[in-house]
Amino acid sequence: MQTFLIAVILLETSKWMMKVDARALHAKQFGYIGAAIGLFLMIYNNKKYNGKYNQYRYYWKDETKGTRILKGGYVVLTLLFPIALVIIFGVHWKK
Fold first, then answer.
1. Residue 50 reports pLDDT greater than 80
2. CA dist., res. 78 & res. 68, Å (int)
3. What is the percent of the chain with per-residue pLDDT over 90, rounded to a whole number?
4. Burial of 8 by CB count in 10 Å (0-12 exposed, 13-18 middle, 19+ buried)?
5. pTM above 0.70, yes or no
6. Rounded to whole angstroms, what are the CA distances from 76 to 22, 50, 61, 69, 87?
7. How far apart are CA 56 and CA 48, in angstroms?
8. CB-based contact 43:9 (threshold 8 Å)
9. DSSP structure string for 24-47
10. Distance between CA 16 and CA 94 in Å, rounded?
């Protein structure tokens, strides 16, 4: 999701700043930059969260089932909200 959001922001701003032929000319370089950003975020998140499962499990073990469902809903909304924004703004910006 982090890489997706960064890609959407960069793609939309590049549409405003660069002409179509300039973007096509540098598409391969943009792809390499995107892959590097994705790789960086993957390594960063792996280092940050690797081995933390038991710590989080201990922290969340006393939650009620209702709280778990509510927090799970928040996670799903957090994942779907940026995608919905991209779709909504993408449709309205093209007009």
1. yes
2. 15
3. 29
4. middle
5. no
6. 37, 22, 20, 10, 17
7. 13
8. no
9. HHTHHHHHHHHHHHHHHHHHHHHH
10. 12
